[in-house]
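Sample entry (525 residues):
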Amino acid sequence: MTGWWEGAVGYQIYVRSFADADGDGVGDLPGARERLPYLADLGVDVIWLTPFYPSPQADHGYDVSDYTGVDLVFGSVADVDHLVADAHRLGLRVLIDLVPNHTSDRHPWFADARASRDSDRRDWYVWRDPAPDGGPPNNWVSHFGGPAWTFDEVTGQYYLHLFLPEQPDLNWDHPEVRSAFRRILTFWFDRGVDGFRIDVAHALVKDPGLRDDPWIDGPPADDASPQEVFAALDHVHDLDQPAVLDIYREWRQVARRYDAVLVGEVYLLRPEALTRYVEGRDGLHAAFCFPVLKVDWDGPRIREILQRSVAAGGDRLAWPLSSHDDPRAATRFGGGPTGSRRALAYLALLCALPGVPFIYQGDELGLEDGEVAAGADPIAVRNPGATGRDGARTPIPWAPGPGYGFTTGEPWLGFGANRHDGLTMLAQDADPGSHLNAVRRLLACRRGLTGLHAAATVQWLDTTPGVVAFRRGDVLAACNAGDRSAVVTLPADGELVHATGGDTRVEDRELHLPADVTAYVRLPS
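Predicted structure, serialized as C-alpha coordinates:
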Protein backbone atom coordinates (compact mmCIF):
# COMPACT_ATOMS: atom_id res chain seq x y z
CA MET A 1 0.00 0.00 0.00
CA THR A 2 1.36 3.41 -0.97
CA GLY A 3 1.73 5.94 1.83
CA TRP A 4 0.64 9.55 1.44
CA TRP A 5 4.25 10.73 1.86
CA GLU A 6 5.60 8.75 -1.08
CA GLY A 7 6.38 11.12 -3.93
CA ALA A 8 5.79 14.18 -1.73
CA VAL A 9 7.94 17.31 -1.54
CA GLY A 10 8.89 18.50 1.94
CA TYR A 11 9.64 21.97 3.31
CA GLN A 12 11.46 22.69 6.56
CA ILE A 13 10.29 25.65 8.64
CA TYR A 14 12.86 26.84 11.17
CA VAL A 15 10.17 28.47 13.27
CA ARG A 16 12.35 31.13 14.95
CA SER A 17 13.34 32.60 11.58
CA PHE A 18 10.34 32.02 9.34
CA ALA A 19 7.68 34.64 10.13
CA ASP A 20 6.98 36.75 13.22
CA ALA A 21 3.32 37.64 13.75
CA ASP A 22 3.55 39.50 17.08
CA GLY A 23 6.54 41.78 16.44
CA ASP A 24 8.86 40.47 19.14
CA GLY A 25 11.58 39.61 16.61
CA VAL A 26 11.17 35.82 16.89
CA GLY A 27 9.25 33.73 14.38
CA ASP A 28 6.17 32.00 15.74
CA LEU A 29 3.34 29.61 14.91
CA PRO A 30 0.81 32.31 13.94
CA GLY A 31 3.41 33.73 11.57
CA ALA A 32 3.95 30.33 10.00
CA ARG A 33 0.21 29.84 9.73
CA GLU A 34 -0.15 33.09 7.78
CA ARG A 35 2.39 31.85 5.21
CA LEU A 36 0.77 28.47 4.55
CA PRO A 37 -0.93 29.65 1.32
CA TYR A 38 2.51 30.68 0.02
CA LEU A 39 3.82 27.18 0.67
CA ALA A 40 0.83 25.55 -0.99
CA ASP A 41 1.37 27.81 -4.01
CA LEU A 42 5.07 26.92 -4.04
CA GLY A 43 4.10 23.30 -4.66
CA VAL A 44 5.23 21.47 -1.52
CA ASP A 45 3.14 18.75 0.11
CA VAL A 46 4.39 18.47 3.68
CA ILE A 47 5.93 20.93 6.13
CA TRP A 48 8.23 20.17 9.04
CA LEU A 49 8.21 22.53 12.02
CA THR A 50 11.30 22.73 14.23
CA PRO A 51 10.72 22.51 18.02
CA PHE A 52 8.16 24.91 19.47
CA TYR A 53 7.94 23.26 22.91
CA PRO A 54 8.60 25.07 26.20
CA SER A 55 12.37 25.39 26.52
CA PRO A 56 15.06 27.49 28.21
CA GLN A 57 16.42 27.89 24.63
CA ALA A 58 19.98 26.85 25.46
CA ASP A 59 19.99 25.20 22.03
CA HIS A 60 17.11 27.13 20.48
CA GLY A 61 14.38 24.69 21.37
CA TYR A 62 16.27 21.42 21.09
CA ASP A 63 16.42 21.43 24.90
CA VAL A 64 12.81 20.58 25.71
CA SER A 65 11.26 21.12 29.13
CA ASP A 66 7.71 19.98 28.23
CA TYR A 67 6.92 17.73 25.25
CA THR A 68 3.18 18.43 25.22
CA GLY A 69 3.23 22.21 25.48
CA VAL A 70 4.16 25.25 23.39
CA ASP A 71 6.66 27.91 24.43
CA LEU A 72 5.00 31.29 24.88
CA VAL A 73 7.45 32.86 22.42
CA PHE A 74 5.99 30.62 19.68
CA GLY A 75 2.31 30.69 20.65
CA SER A 76 0.05 28.09 22.22
CA VAL A 77 -1.24 24.56 21.73
CA ALA A 78 -4.33 26.15 20.16
CA ASP A 79 -2.03 27.77 17.60
CA VAL A 80 -0.73 24.32 16.65
CA ASP A 81 -4.32 23.14 16.25
CA HIS A 82 -5.19 26.11 14.01
CA LEU A 83 -2.04 25.70 11.92
CA VAL A 84 -2.67 21.99 11.39
CA ALA A 85 -6.31 22.60 10.45
CA ASP A 86 -5.39 25.33 7.95
CA ALA A 87 -2.61 23.20 6.47
CA HIS A 88 -4.97 20.30 5.93
CA ARG A 89 -7.51 22.58 4.20
CA LEU A 90 -4.72 23.62 1.82
CA GLY A 91 -3.71 20.03 1.15
CA LEU A 92 -0.55 20.22 3.27
CA ARG A 93 0.57 17.65 5.83
CA VAL A 94 2.39 18.66 9.03
CA LEU A 95 5.40 17.03 10.68
CA ILE A 96 6.70 18.29 14.00
CA ASP A 97 10.12 17.84 15.53
CA LEU A 98 10.56 15.32 18.34
CA VAL A 99 13.73 15.43 20.46
CA PRO A 100 13.93 12.04 22.21
CA ASN A 101 17.67 11.66 22.79
CA HIS A 102 17.79 14.27 25.53
CA THR A 103 15.67 16.72 27.49
CA SER A 104 16.43 20.11 28.96
CA ASP A 105 18.12 20.05 32.36
CA ARG A 106 15.08 22.13 33.41
CA HIS A 107 12.65 19.37 32.52
CA PRO A 108 10.78 18.14 35.65
CA TRP A 109 12.04 14.63 34.87
CA PHE A 110 15.66 15.71 35.23
CA ALA A 111 14.97 17.94 38.21
CA ASP A 112 13.65 14.85 39.99
CA ALA A 113 16.50 12.66 38.71
CA ARG A 114 19.27 14.90 40.03
CA ALA A 115 17.62 15.52 43.40
CA SER A 116 18.84 12.23 44.85
CA ARG A 117 20.32 8.88 43.82
CA ASP A 118 17.08 7.38 45.13
CA SER A 119 14.75 9.60 43.07
CA ASP A 120 11.97 7.88 41.16
CA ARG A 121 13.33 9.14 37.82
CA ARG A 122 17.02 8.77 38.60
CA ASP A 123 17.41 5.96 36.07
CA TRP A 124 15.52 7.84 33.37
CA TYR A 125 18.94 9.39 32.63
CA VAL A 126 22.46 7.98 32.28
CA TRP A 127 24.48 8.37 35.51
CA ARG A 128 27.87 6.89 36.35
CA ASP A 129 30.47 7.15 39.08
CA PRO A 130 33.70 8.99 38.27
CA ALA A 131 36.62 7.12 36.76
CA PRO A 132 39.37 6.06 39.22
CA ASP A 133 41.16 9.36 38.60
CA GLY A 134 37.98 11.30 39.39
CA GLY A 135 37.36 12.25 35.77
CA PRO A 136 34.55 11.32 33.37
CA PRO A 137 33.51 7.65 33.10
CA ASN A 138 34.77 7.32 29.51
CA ASN A 139 36.27 9.29 26.62
CA TRP A 140 33.04 10.24 24.85
CA VAL A 141 32.86 13.84 23.69
CA SER A 142 30.01 16.27 23.10
CA HIS A 143 29.03 17.45 19.64
CA PHE A 144 29.22 20.96 21.05
CA GLY A 145 32.68 20.76 22.61
CA GLY A 146 34.24 19.19 25.69
CA PRO A 147 33.48 15.86 27.41
CA ALA A 148 30.06 14.27 27.06
CA TRP A 149 29.86 14.11 30.87
CA THR A 150 29.14 16.69 33.56
CA PHE A 151 29.77 16.08 37.25
CA ASP A 152 26.81 16.69 39.55
CA GLU A 153 28.03 17.95 42.91
CA VAL A 154 24.80 17.10 44.75
CA THR A 155 24.78 13.37 44.02
CA GLY A 156 28.48 12.79 43.26
CA GLN A 157 27.99 11.21 39.83
CA TYR A 158 28.44 12.24 36.22
CA TYR A 159 25.50 12.45 33.81
CA LEU A 160 25.77 11.89 30.06
CA HIS A 161 25.02 14.53 27.42
CA LEU A 162 26.05 14.08 23.79
CA PHE A 163 25.23 17.76 23.27
CA LEU A 164 25.19 20.63 25.80
CA PRO A 165 25.42 20.04 29.57
CA GLU A 166 21.92 21.56 29.59
CA GLN A 167 20.76 18.61 27.43
CA PRO A 168 21.09 15.43 29.53
CA ASP A 169 20.63 12.19 27.61
CA LEU A 170 17.68 9.96 28.44
CA ASN A 171 18.18 6.31 29.31
CA TRP A 172 16.23 4.43 26.64
CA ASP A 173 16.76 1.11 28.40
CA HIS A 174 14.22 2.25 30.98
CA PRO A 175 10.68 1.03 30.18
CA GLU A 176 9.02 4.10 31.70
CA VAL A 177 10.93 6.39 29.31
CA ARG A 178 9.53 4.37 26.43
CA SER A 179 6.02 4.54 27.84
CA ALA A 180 6.28 8.30 28.33
CA PHE A 181 7.19 8.86 24.71
CA ARG A 182 4.43 6.65 23.39
CA ARG A 183 2.06 8.93 25.30
CA ILE A 184 3.74 11.99 23.75
CA LEU A 185 3.31 10.58 20.25
CA THR A 186 -0.35 9.87 20.91
CA PHE A 187 -0.94 13.35 22.34
CA TRP A 188 0.16 15.04 19.10
CA PHE A 189 -1.35 12.45 16.77
CA ASP A 190 -4.69 13.03 18.48
CA ARG A 191 -4.35 16.74 17.61
CA GLY A 192 -4.02 15.94 13.91
CA VAL A 193 -0.25 16.05 13.45
CA ASP A 194 0.73 13.85 10.49
CA GLY A 195 4.10 12.64 11.73
CA PHE A 196 7.41 13.40 13.37
CA ARG A 197 10.89 14.32 12.30
CA ILE A 198 12.98 12.50 14.93
CA ASP A 199 16.04 14.42 16.11
CA VAL A 200 19.33 12.47 16.32
CA ALA A 201 17.42 9.29 15.58
CA HIS A 202 20.59 7.18 15.49
CA ALA A 203 21.81 8.07 19.00
CA LEU A 204 19.11 7.12 21.51
CA VAL A 205 20.64 3.79 22.55
CA LYS A 206 24.19 3.56 23.90
CA ASP A 207 26.57 0.70 24.49
CA PRO A 208 25.48 -0.94 27.77
CA GLY A 209 29.07 -1.04 29.01
CA LEU A 210 29.74 2.59 28.06
CA ARG A 211 33.07 1.53 26.58
CA ASP A 212 35.55 4.10 25.25
CA ASP A 213 35.28 4.98 21.57
CA PRO A 214 38.54 4.26 19.74
CA TRP A 215 40.49 7.14 18.20
CA ILE A 216 40.73 6.88 14.42
CA ASP A 217 44.23 8.37 14.09
CA GLY A 218 44.97 9.35 17.67
CA PRO A 219 43.71 12.29 19.74
CA PRO A 220 43.42 15.62 17.86
CA ALA A 221 45.49 18.74 18.54
CA ASP A 222 44.69 20.80 21.62
CA ASP A 223 43.30 23.64 19.47
CA ALA A 224 40.99 21.41 17.41
CA SER A 225 37.40 22.56 16.96
CA PRO A 226 34.50 20.61 18.53
CA GLN A 227 33.69 19.21 15.10
CA GLU A 228 37.27 18.05 14.58
CA VAL A 229 37.44 16.43 18.01
CA PHE A 230 34.14 14.61 17.44
CA ALA A 231 35.29 13.42 14.01
CA ALA A 232 38.55 12.07 15.45
CA LEU A 233 36.67 9.30 17.30
CA ASP A 234 35.16 6.17 15.79
CA HIS A 235 31.69 6.34 17.34
CA VAL A 236 31.08 2.63 17.66
CA HIS A 237 29.72 2.77 21.22
CA ASP A 238 27.81 6.06 21.55
CA LEU A 239 25.97 6.13 18.19
CA ASP A 240 24.11 3.80 15.81
CA GLN A 241 23.57 0.91 18.23
CA PRO A 242 21.58 -2.12 16.98
CA ALA A 243 18.82 -1.86 19.61
CA VAL A 244 17.71 1.63 18.51
CA LEU A 245 15.40 0.05 15.92
CA ASP A 246 13.39 -1.61 18.69
CA ILE A 247 12.18 1.85 19.73
CA TYR A 248 10.99 2.72 16.24
CA ARG A 249 9.21 -0.61 15.88
CA GLU A 250 7.14 0.38 18.93
CA TRP A 251 6.50 3.83 17.53
CA ARG A 252 5.56 2.43 14.13
CA GLN A 253 2.70 0.58 15.79
CA VAL A 254 1.43 3.86 17.27
CA ALA A 255 1.87 5.77 14.00
CA ARG A 256 0.04 3.10 12.01
CA ARG A 257 -3.20 3.84 13.85
CA TYR A 258 -3.08 7.44 12.59
CA ASP A 259 -1.66 6.89 9.09
CA ALA A 260 1.30 8.98 10.29
CA VAL A 261 4.93 8.99 9.22
CA LEU A 262 8.23 8.77 11.14
CA VAL A 263 11.21 10.44 9.46
CA GLY A 264 14.56 10.08 11.20
CA GLU A 265 17.46 12.49 11.39
CA VAL A 266 19.96 9.67 10.94
CA TYR A 267 23.11 11.78 10.71
CA LEU A 268 25.42 9.06 9.44
CA LEU A 269 27.62 9.98 6.50
CA ARG A 270 28.13 6.50 5.08
CA PRO A 271 25.06 5.84 2.92
CA GLU A 272 25.09 2.11 3.61
CA ALA A 273 24.56 2.80 7.33
CA LEU A 274 21.04 4.07 6.56
CA THR A 275 19.71 0.77 5.23
CA ARG A 276 18.75 -0.89 8.49
CA TYR A 277 16.75 2.16 9.62
CA VAL A 278 14.35 1.99 6.67
CA GLU A 279 14.36 -1.58 5.39
CA GLY A 280 11.25 -3.66 5.88
CA ARG A 281 7.98 -2.21 7.05
CA ASP A 282 8.44 -1.97 10.81
CA GLY A 283 11.08 0.73 11.43
CA LEU A 284 11.26 4.32 10.27
CA HIS A 285 9.21 5.21 7.24
CA ALA A 286 12.09 7.33 5.95
CA ALA A 287 15.48 8.70 6.94
CA PHE A 288 17.17 11.92 5.92
CA CYS A 289 20.20 11.24 3.72
CA PHE A 290 22.86 13.66 4.96
CA PRO A 291 25.70 12.59 2.67
CA VAL A 292 23.99 14.67 -0.04
CA LEU A 293 24.58 17.77 2.14
CA LYS A 294 28.32 17.21 2.25
CA VAL A 295 29.19 16.74 -1.42
CA ASP A 296 30.96 19.47 -3.43
CA TRP A 297 29.96 20.54 -6.95
CA ASP A 298 31.76 17.61 -8.52
CA GLY A 299 29.96 15.36 -11.01
CA PRO A 300 31.69 12.04 -10.28
CA ARG A 301 31.41 12.57 -6.53
CA ILE A 302 27.73 13.56 -6.74
CA ARG A 303 26.98 10.47 -8.80
CA GLU A 304 28.85 8.21 -6.37
CA ILE A 305 26.99 9.57 -3.33
CA LEU A 306 23.57 9.46 -4.99
CA GLN A 307 24.10 6.00 -6.46
CA ARG A 308 25.22 4.56 -3.12
CA SER A 309 22.39 6.31 -1.29
CA VAL A 310 19.68 5.07 -3.64
CA ALA A 311 21.09 1.56 -3.34
CA ALA A 312 21.02 1.89 0.46
CA GLY A 313 17.53 3.31 0.91
CA GLY A 314 15.74 3.82 -2.39
CA ASP A 315 12.38 5.52 -1.97
CA ARG A 316 12.71 5.40 1.85
CA LEU A 317 15.09 8.34 1.94
CA ALA A 318 14.45 12.06 2.30
CA TRP A 319 16.83 14.28 0.33
CA PRO A 320 17.65 17.59 2.10
CA LEU A 321 18.93 20.40 -0.10
CA SER A 322 19.99 22.38 2.99
CA SER A 323 19.17 22.46 6.70
CA HIS A 324 19.37 24.63 9.80
CA ASP A 325 22.52 22.74 10.85
CA ASP A 326 24.51 22.97 7.60
CA PRO A 327 25.60 25.64 5.12
CA ARG A 328 22.98 26.48 2.52
CA ALA A 329 23.31 24.82 -0.88
CA ALA A 330 23.96 28.13 -2.65
CA THR A 331 26.88 28.80 -0.29
CA ARG A 332 28.25 25.25 -0.53
CA PHE A 333 28.27 25.44 -4.31
CA GLY A 334 30.26 28.65 -4.66
CA GLY A 335 28.01 31.52 -3.60
CA GLY A 336 26.65 34.35 -5.70
CA PRO A 337 24.73 33.70 -8.94
CA THR A 338 26.83 30.59 -9.61
CA GLY A 339 25.99 29.04 -6.25
CA SER A 340 22.27 29.76 -6.64
CA ARG A 341 22.24 28.35 -10.17
CA ARG A 342 23.94 25.17 -9.01
CA ALA A 343 21.63 24.87 -6.00
CA LEU A 344 18.62 24.98 -8.34
CA ALA A 345 20.17 22.33 -10.60
CA TYR A 346 20.94 20.13 -7.59
CA LEU A 347 17.38 20.49 -6.29
CA ALA A 348 16.08 19.34 -9.68
CA LEU A 349 18.37 16.33 -9.51
CA LEU A 350 17.16 15.42 -6.01
CA CYS A 351 13.54 15.90 -7.15
CA ALA A 352 14.03 13.21 -9.78
CA LEU A 353 15.15 10.57 -7.27
CA PRO A 354 12.80 8.14 -5.54
CA GLY A 355 11.96 9.41 -2.05
CA VAL A 356 11.11 12.84 -0.65
CA PRO A 357 13.15 15.96 -1.48
CA PHE A 358 13.18 18.58 1.29
CA ILE A 359 13.58 22.31 0.74
CA TYR A 360 14.89 24.31 3.68
CA GLN A 361 13.15 27.65 4.08
CA GLY A 362 14.81 30.22 1.84
CA ASP A 363 16.25 27.65 -0.57
CA GLU A 364 13.38 28.53 -2.89
CA LEU A 365 14.69 32.12 -2.88
CA GLY A 366 18.26 31.03 -3.64
CA LEU A 367 19.48 32.44 -0.31
CA GLU A 368 23.07 32.04 0.81
CA ASP A 369 24.35 31.83 4.36
CA GLY A 370 23.79 35.20 5.99
CA GLU A 371 27.00 35.95 7.86
CA VAL A 372 26.10 37.78 11.06
CA ALA A 373 28.26 39.86 13.39
CA ALA A 374 26.64 38.75 16.66
CA GLY A 375 25.99 35.03 16.68
CA ALA A 376 23.65 33.03 18.87
CA ASP A 377 24.54 29.39 18.15
CA PRO A 378 25.94 27.74 21.31
CA ILE A 379 28.64 25.96 19.28
CA ALA A 380 30.27 29.29 18.40
CA VAL A 381 29.30 31.17 21.55
CA ARG A 382 30.84 28.56 23.85
CA ASN A 383 33.84 27.66 21.68
CA PRO A 384 35.67 30.82 20.54
CA GLY A 385 36.85 30.45 16.96
CA ALA A 386 34.48 27.57 16.16
CA THR A 387 32.15 27.78 13.17
CA GLY A 388 28.53 28.07 14.25
CA ARG A 389 25.28 27.47 12.40
CA ASP A 390 23.86 31.00 12.51
CA GLY A 391 24.56 31.64 8.84
CA ALA A 392 21.92 29.12 7.81
CA ARG A 393 19.42 30.43 10.36
CA THR A 394 19.01 34.08 9.41
CA PRO A 395 15.38 35.24 9.05
CA ILE A 396 13.48 34.97 5.78
CA PRO A 397 13.26 38.28 3.87
CA TRP A 398 9.62 38.47 2.79
CA ALA A 399 9.32 42.05 1.56
CA PRO A 400 11.43 45.22 1.16
CA GLY A 401 11.51 47.62 4.06
CA PRO A 402 12.38 47.58 7.77
CA GLY A 403 12.33 44.06 9.14
CA TYR A 404 11.98 42.72 5.59
CA GLY A 405 8.45 41.56 6.28
CA PHE A 406 9.75 39.06 8.83
CA THR A 407 9.08 41.25 11.86
CA THR A 408 8.03 44.73 12.90
CA GLY A 409 10.51 44.53 15.76
CA GLU A 410 14.22 43.81 16.15
CA PRO A 411 14.98 40.37 14.64
CA TRP A 412 16.54 37.85 17.02
CA LEU A 413 19.30 37.25 14.45
CA GLY A 414 20.52 39.60 11.73
CA PHE A 415 19.77 39.08 8.02
CA GLY A 416 23.46 39.30 7.09
CA ALA A 417 24.12 38.84 3.37
CA ASN A 418 20.40 38.35 2.73
CA ARG A 419 19.66 42.01 3.53
CA HIS A 420 18.72 42.88 -0.05
CA ASP A 421 15.36 43.97 -1.45
CA GLY A 422 15.85 41.93 -4.61
CA LEU A 423 16.11 38.69 -2.63
CA THR A 424 12.78 39.13 -0.90
CA MET A 425 9.84 36.87 -1.65
CA LEU A 426 7.75 39.82 -2.83
CA ALA A 427 10.36 40.98 -5.34
CA GLN A 428 10.96 37.48 -6.65
CA ASP A 429 7.25 36.73 -6.86
CA ALA A 430 6.86 39.56 -9.38
CA ASP A 431 9.85 38.47 -11.50
CA PRO A 432 9.13 35.56 -13.89
CA GLY A 433 12.88 34.88 -14.13
CA SER A 434 13.48 34.71 -10.37
CA HIS A 435 14.80 31.76 -8.40
CA LEU A 436 11.44 31.49 -6.64
CA ASN A 437 9.49 31.14 -9.85
CA ALA A 438 12.04 28.68 -11.21
CA VAL A 439 11.44 26.46 -8.16
CA ARG A 440 7.68 26.76 -8.63
CA ARG A 441 8.00 25.62 -12.25
CA LEU A 442 10.27 22.74 -11.22
CA LEU A 443 7.86 21.43 -8.60
CA ALA A 444 4.88 21.79 -10.94
CA CYS A 445 6.72 19.84 -13.62
CA ARG A 446 7.73 17.13 -11.15
CA ARG A 447 4.15 16.74 -10.00
CA GLY A 448 3.03 16.12 -13.57
CA LEU A 449 5.69 13.57 -14.53
CA THR A 450 4.07 10.23 -13.78
CA GLY A 451 7.35 8.44 -14.50
CA LEU A 452 8.84 10.02 -11.38
CA HIS A 453 6.05 8.63 -9.23
CA ALA A 454 5.33 5.25 -10.77
CA ALA A 455 8.90 3.95 -11.11
CA ALA A 456 11.13 3.39 -8.07
CA THR A 457 13.98 1.81 -10.04
CA VAL A 458 16.85 4.10 -11.01
CA GLN A 459 18.89 3.22 -14.08
CA TRP A 460 22.21 5.08 -13.97
CA LEU A 461 23.62 6.11 -17.33
CA ASP A 462 27.23 6.34 -18.42
CA THR A 463 27.77 9.68 -20.10
CA THR A 464 30.07 12.67 -20.40
CA PRO A 465 32.42 13.19 -17.42
CA GLY A 466 30.90 15.75 -15.05
CA VAL A 467 27.33 14.84 -16.00
CA VAL A 468 25.13 12.88 -13.59
CA ALA A 469 22.34 11.12 -15.49
CA PHE A 470 19.77 8.46 -14.71
CA ARG A 471 16.41 7.22 -15.92
CA ARG A 472 13.25 6.54 -13.93
CA GLY A 473 10.40 5.18 -15.95
CA ASP A 474 9.99 7.39 -19.00
CA VAL A 475 11.97 10.32 -17.50
CA LEU A 476 15.67 10.90 -17.99
CA ALA A 477 17.27 13.41 -15.60
CA ALA A 478 20.70 14.84 -16.32
CA CYS A 479 22.72 17.37 -14.34
CA ASN A 480 25.84 18.98 -15.78
CA ALA A 481 28.19 19.58 -12.84
CA GLY A 482 31.12 20.15 -15.18
CA ASP A 483 32.68 23.45 -16.19
CA ARG A 484 31.52 23.48 -19.83
CA SER A 485 28.55 22.51 -21.96
CA ALA A 486 28.04 18.79 -22.55
CA VAL A 487 26.15 16.54 -24.92
CA VAL A 488 24.25 13.55 -23.54
CA THR A 489 23.31 10.81 -25.96
CA LEU A 490 19.73 9.72 -25.35
CA PRO A 491 18.61 6.09 -25.50
CA ALA A 492 15.71 7.15 -27.75
CA ASP A 493 14.09 10.23 -29.21
CA GLY A 494 12.81 12.34 -26.37
CA GLU A 495 11.04 15.57 -25.45
CA LEU A 496 12.68 18.20 -23.27
CA VAL A 497 10.09 18.90 -20.54
CA HIS A 498 12.10 20.96 -18.08
CA ALA A 499 15.48 22.65 -17.71
CA THR A 500 16.81 24.83 -14.90
CA GLY A 501 18.71 27.04 -17.37
CA GLY A 502 18.49 28.36 -20.89
CA ASP A 503 20.22 27.11 -24.06
CA THR A 504 19.15 23.55 -23.25
CA ARG A 505 17.75 21.58 -26.17
CA VAL A 506 17.20 18.11 -27.61
CA GLU A 507 18.24 17.43 -31.20
CA ASP A 508 18.74 14.13 -33.01
CA ARG A 509 18.68 12.04 -29.84
CA GLU A 510 21.16 14.34 -28.14
CA LEU A 511 20.60 16.51 -25.07
CA HIS A 512 22.67 19.70 -25.24
CA LEU A 513 23.20 20.67 -21.62
CA PRO A 514 24.96 23.84 -20.40
CA ALA A 515 27.11 23.77 -17.28
CA ASP A 516 25.27 24.07 -13.94
CA VAL A 517 21.94 22.98 -15.44
CA THR A 518 19.66 20.00 -14.85
CA ALA A 519 17.17 18.86 -17.50
CA TYR A 520 14.32 16.37 -17.64
CA VAL A 521 13.65 14.53 -20.91
CA ARG A 522 10.53 12.43 -21.44
CA LEU A 523 11.34 9.24 -23.35
CA PRO A 524 9.06 6.69 -25.00
CA SER A 525 7.58 4.38 -22.35
